[in-house]
Design brief:
The complex is a heterodimer of chains A (237) and B (400).
Chain A (H helix, E strand, L loop, with lengths): L1 E2 L2 E2 L13 E5 L6 H9 L10 E2 L2 E2 L11 E3 L11 H12 L4 H14 L15 H13 L5 E5 L7 H18 L2 E6 L2 H7 L2 E6 L4 E6 L1 H7 L3 H7 L10
Parallel strand pairs in A: 3-8, 3-9, 6-7, 7-8
Antiparallel strand pairs in A: 1-2, 4-5, 9-10
Helix pairs in contact in A: 2-3, 2-4, 3-4
Chain B lengths: L2 H6 L1 H16 L2 E7 L4 E10 L4 H12 L7 E12 L1 H16 L3 E5 L3 H9 L18 H35 L6 H13 L2 H25 L6 H39 L2 H7 L4 H39 L4 H11 L2 H27 L4 H33 L3
Parallel strand pairs in B: 2-3, 3-4
Antiparallel strand pairs in B: 1-2
Classes of the chains: A alpha/beta (237), B alpha/beta (400).
Chain lengths: 237, 400
């Protein structure tokens, strides 16, 4: 997987079980977001195949969404209100009347703790609220699988914890399968059930398993350095 | 210093004065002493902060020029009371430069606090390589890079056109996939909102054209032909072209910036993951909106341009409105008006396509959005003139 002539990942074979919270982790620039873009169909792998629920990965050529995606910045449509954002796929791909769509939108926003925010524009929301609204939009079409790109990035600690709680609740109560890209250690240990770690130097997966177990048992210095937050920058004495 | 000296060598005198002022302001001491023929010690003392950086760098530059023949320089920091990161970085650079000239250089002494700053800014490590200077790019390399860039851009445009054709076919087969809301919005923004400036600019164009030609026509007793001049010029050429130029600057730039911002903020990616194709959803409605308002804008531009000319004719050539109108009717044919309207439609389609293509090709954040918006406007202007020339030749071939 890569861009143009640059290969970011030489090998990335893994399986995600239904109902899992699967975390893709690694340092900056190791290809986490690139991997996510390939999984959701925004980019085509240079080699290999992607299968989701036994079907080849979608090529995003104009079909109802099979799963939800939350981008790092939320990527809400800035010219539409929160309610219009959440209703977008419903209005485009279903024959539901307006009031039915509104009812579903309200329920999705309530699910993520944004009751009453339908009429607000994305610019009027805080970072955490925008991410919640993006999750509500991703959930609108009742997916079984959702991809989250750095959900906690840029959030204050309280909002980050709230978002982690939301992800856990969605997984627990709805059986939602979550594939999450992150490098936030707190989130990894709190929500991640299984994970793979990517490495920029080797351009491959260097560890896989339960995050807590990996931190305890891995002998790979790269894995230990990541989990123990070891750096090569001089520290103050 | 006398006034004469100041007049003779102003820049040198200014440098000396500046050095004096800087020297008076510096709060640190710099004492260089030779240990022996090949070793030297520089003792720094006092407080060295960012305010002293210029003076420190001046001392470093002077010293660097005097190290010929030295094997070792010791930078003694024991008398320093305080040094900040910026000045430490300058001293580290000094050490790196000396090592590059094969002169050994080390820091010594310094309080606990000073040693921490030394440690943080790499003072303990062996000198890093200085950043290699970028060699100037030769003319041939620049031509080659520019050629490759042009081919790359052409490839992107061809790709866009191909996807547009496929998207148009998709919309024809699935009309509901067309985003009609944006058609109406575009018509309002590019049509109704742009009308005042289109009217004003074209009125002035007609006014100026008639004014400039009035004097010449009067000499030959052909004043009445100002109606022919303004009428034919506005309907065939200036009306559609000026309208397109205004739409380019106003709407074309807006499209490019809007779609570029959507691209860099991942809104276009989000659209795709929700099952909507960017071209039918974003590009085709904009193009359709512009095409639909183009004929009306051209007609309005023609009308006010002719009105401007009629005003000049009335004020300076004593041609009545009735005479002007009769002459106009005999000069301007239906084919003139129609060809102008068709040009307007083609121009607006080009504006929409180029601005949307540039917007969707954006990368690199805000800087990328700015770059693509500028590129869109320049490309559109060039294309408009090219299309106008092609139309002229084409219409002449068919005697229209």
């Amino acid at each position: 997987m890569g861009h143009g002539k640059t290969t970011l990942l030489r090998e990335a074979s893994f399986e995600v079980e239904r109902g899992d919270i699967f975390v893709v982790l690694g340092g900056s620039g190791c290809g986490k977001s690139t991997l996510l873009r390939h999984l959701v169909g925004l980019e085509t792998p240079l080699a290999g195949e992607i299968h989701i629920a036994g079907v080849g990965a979608p090529r995003l050529e104009g079909a109802a969404p099979r799963y939800g995606v939350m981008f790092q910045s939320g990527a809400l449509f800035s010219s539409m209100t929160v309610g219009e954002n959440v209703a977008f796929a419903l209005q485009g791909w279903t024959q539901l009347p307006v009031d039915a769509v509104d009812a579903i939108v309200r329920s999705k926003l309530a699910l993520v703790g944004l009751e009453g925010a339908e009429g607000k524009l994305p610019a009027e929301l805080s970072g955490g609220m925008r991410k919640r609204a993006a999750i509500a939009r991703a959930m609108a079409f009742e997916p079984n699988l959702i991809f989250l790109d750095e959900p906690s990035a840029g959030l204050d600690p309280v909002s980050a914890v709230e978002l982690d709680e939301l992800i856990l609740a969605l997984n627990r109560n709805l059986g939602l399968t979550v594939v999450m890209v992150t490098h936030e250690l707190e989130s990894i240990f709190k929500v991640g059930k299984h994970c793979i770690m990517l490495d920029r130097e080797s351009r491959s997966i260097i560890a896989r398993g339960n995050p807590s177990q990996l931190r305890r048992e891995s002998h790979d210095p790269r894995v230990r350095r990541f989990f123990n937050r070891e750096t090569s920058v001089p520290q103050w004495q | 210093m006398t006034d004469g000296e100041v007049l003779d060598r102003p820049s040198v005198v200014f440098d000396e004065r500046l050095s004096l002022v800087v020297g008076m302001l510096q709060r640190f001491t710099w004492r260089q002493a030779a240990v022996d023929d090949s070793n030297s010690r520089i003792e720094l003392g006092g407080s060295i902060t960012i305010d002293d950086a210029a003076a420190l760098w001046k001392r470093i530059s002077e010293t660097r020029a005097q190290v010929e023949g030295l094997r070792r320089v010791e930078l003694e920091l024991g008398q320093i009371q305080m040094i900040d990161g910026a000045c430490m970085a300058l001293l580290v650079q000094f050490r790196t430069d000396l090592r590059a000239r094969k002169v050994e250089c080390e820091f010594s002494g310094g309080s606990e606090e000073v040693r921490r700053i030394v440690h943080l800014y790499g003072g303990r490590k062996k000198g890093r390589q200085t950043r290699p200077r970028r060699r100037p790019v030769s003319a041939i390399e620049q031509v080659g890079a520019a050629t490759l860039a042009v081919f790359g851009e052409a490839k992107q445009i061809l790709d866009f056109m191909g996807r547009l054709v496929a998207s148009t076919w998709h919309v024809l087969r699935h009309p509901k996939s067309l985003n009609l809301r944006d058609v109406g919005l575009t018509m309002e923004r590019a049509g109704a909102d742009a009308a005042p400036i289109v009217l004003l600019i074209n009125f002035l164009i007609g006014f100026v054209m008639a004014y400039q030609s009035a004097a010449q026509l009067k000499q030959f007793g052909a004043s009445i032909y100002v109606a022919d001049l303004v009428g034919v010029s506005m309907t065939r050429e200036l009306g559609p072209l000026m309208m397109a130029i205004i739409i380019c600057g106003r709407t074309g730039a807006a499209f490019a910036a809007e779609l570029g911002t959507m691209k860099v903020s991942e809104e276009v990616d989000a659209l795709r993951t929700l099952g909507f194709l960017p071209l039918p959803f974003l590009v085709i409605p904009r193009m359709l909106g512009l095409i639909l308002v183009a004929p009306l804008l051209v007609l309005m531009a023609d009308a006010v341009g002719i009105l401007g000319g009629a005003l000049v004719a009335s004020l300076t050539l004593d041609i009545t409105a009735t005479s002007f109108l009769i002459q106009l009717q005999s000069a301007v044919k239906a084919s003139d008006i129609l060809s102008g309207m068709i040009k307007g439609v083609v121009f607006c389609a080009a504006i929409a396509l180029i601005s949307c293509q540039q917007g969707l090709a954006t990368s690199g954040g805000a800087e990328g959005v700015g770059r693509r918006t500028t590129s869109a406007v320049v490309s559109i202007l060039f294309t408009l003139i090219l299309l106008d020339a092609l139309f002229t030749v084409f219409l002449a071939m068919f005697g229209i």
